[in-house]
Amino acid sequence: MQNTFGKLEVYQGIEILQGDMTGNMKKKVLVTGATGFTGGHFAHRLIKEGYMVRVLARPEEDVKNLVAAGMEIVRGDLTNPDSLKGTAEGVHTVYHIAAAFREEGVPKQFFWDVNVKGTQHLMDEALKSGVKRFVHCSTVGVQGEIKHPPAKEDDPYNPGDHYQASKMEGELLVLEYIQKKNLPAVIFRPVGIHGPGDMRFLKFFKYIQNGKFHMFGSGQVLYHLTYIDDLVNGILLCGTVQGIEGEIFTLGGEGNTTLSDFVETIAKILNKPLSKIHYPVWPLWVAGAFFEAVCRPFRIHPPIYRRRVEIFMKDRAFDISKAKRILGYQPKVSLEEGLKRTAAWYMEQKMI
Ligand SMILES: NC(=O)c1ccc[n+]([C@@H]2O[C@H](COP(=O)([O-])OP(=O)(O)OC[C@H]3O[C@@H](n4cnc5c(N)ncnc54)[C@H](OP(=O)(O)O)[C@@H]3O)[C@@H](O)[C@H]2O)c1
């Protein structure tokens, strides 16, 4: 197999070796986003389970870790359909976890190119190769602010920013492929993910550790998190439970929390006091809008942006009972335990 980058790196013998080592030859799967936080944890878990794991990684990405774990690397980019040719050949299940997510200060089209068109290119490859299951990673963000928490999967779409809107369009396209092209797909929507390797929540830990955390707004907005290991269990169930094609599952931790409880838990873990002062949130939101407008033309990551400010403003709480009932999903790591493990990792990495 060759792709347009001509840099297909197949580490010979891995497939045979895995079958021999585990004595339990498992299926070959393709994972996108394995150079990122969630996809990385998930791909390593698959290796532990004895799967033969092929990873789609962009040409410039460092994949030493993945290679060392025994993964097969295919170089490609979701936005370049030619580069994806053959990536799903011989694959039983595709786990599509990659997305444009953390970027800011980029044109909105960037999110569409990766999260909508990129998903389409990968689904076309999956159909061509006759994969048996396509597991698509969406986000609870497609439902944006939740008016009547906790939200169920069939509550209305209500994306609040261009990232969430692009994830909604990607999800709708997967549903269209299921209906019109018989793609055997399953969609999961994670809530906020934390755990070792995550950089998104690092700021909370840093500011609390340095005594610089400020609460904007009441702090009583609802927030819902999942610990990475629980999410990984849920993703695996989406790929392996039979007869669930066409379904959407919200994957989250047990119950939700308020933003105040979330930061107080971190403060308790770090043994740091929290200021009792609450600041109004609207000036921060306006500053976010300003920095976005100024930074976007120069493709600079804004220091403050609305997508992040909205964590102080919007209720986000979700009902995970469908995943429990149909998948047998059961989160095991409490919020406090997950945050403890995350804090320990940040400390180990000397990030806080
Ligand atoms: N983190 C959360 O709290 C959260 C919550 C809900 C849903 N999600 C969803 O969960 C998934 C994983 O999120 P994450 O936090 O783990 O993200 P992440 O760490 O930012 O990883 C994103 C991955 O996507 C890859 N990617 C981006 N553009 C690509 C392209 N054009 N072609 C190929 N690969 C590309 C990245 O590759 P590079 O390494 O080359 O950049 C990286 O491996 C995403 O679908 C996201 O929408 C995340």
CA-CA gap between termini: 44 Å
State the secondary-structure class: alpha/beta
* Portion in strands: 5-15%
User: Level of helix content?
Assistant: 25-40%
Flag low-confidence runs. Answer: 1-24
**Small molecules bound:** NADP nicotinamide-adenine-dinucleotide phosphate
Write down the Rg. Answer: 20 Å
CATH homologous superfamily title of the domain at 14-195 and 226-253 and 317-331: NAD(P)-binding Rossmann-like Domain
Mean pLDDT: 91
- CATH architectural name of the domain at 14-195 and 226-253 and 317-331: 3-Layer(aba) Sandwich
Largest pleated sheet: 7 strands, parallel
User: At the third CATH level, what is the topology name of the domain at 14-195 and 226-253 and 317-331?
Assistant: Rossmann fold
Helix count equals: 12
How many strands?
A: 13
Order of helices and strands: HEHEHEEHEHEEHEEEHEEHEHHHH
Approximate shape: globular
What does this entry show, briefly?
This protein is an alpha/beta fold and 352 residues long.
Secondary-structure blueprint:
Elements (H helix, E strand, L loop, with lengths): L13 H9 L5 E5 L4 H12 L3 E6 L6 H5 L3 E4 L17 E4 L11 H22 L3 E5 L24 H20 L3 E6 L1 E3 L7 H8 L5 E2 L5 E2 L1 E3 H13 L7 E4 L5 E2 H12 L7 E2 L2 H14 L10 H4 L11 H7 L7 H14 L4
Parallel strand pairs: 1-2, 1-4, 2-3, 4-5, 5-6, 6-11, 7-10, 8-13
Antiparallel strand pairs: 9-12
Describe this structure in words.
The structure is a single chain. The chain is α/β, with parallel strands linked by helices. The protein has a domain at 14-195 and 226-253 and 317-331: Rossmann fold (3-Layer(aba) Sandwich). It has helices at 14-22, 37-48, 64-68, 108-129, 162-181, 202-209, 228-240, 259-270, 282-295, 306-309, 321-327, 335-348; strands at residues 28-32, 52-57, 72-75, 93-96, 133-137, 185-190, 192-194, 215-216, 222-223, 225-227, 248-251, 257-258, 278-279. It has a seven-stranded parallel β-sheet with strand order 3-2-1-4-5-6-11, sandwiched between helices. Strands 7-10 form a two-stranded parallel ribbon. Strand 1 (28-32), helix 2 and strand 2 form a beta-alpha-beta unit. The N and C termini lie far apart (44 Å). The model is unreliable at 1-24 (pLDDT under 50).
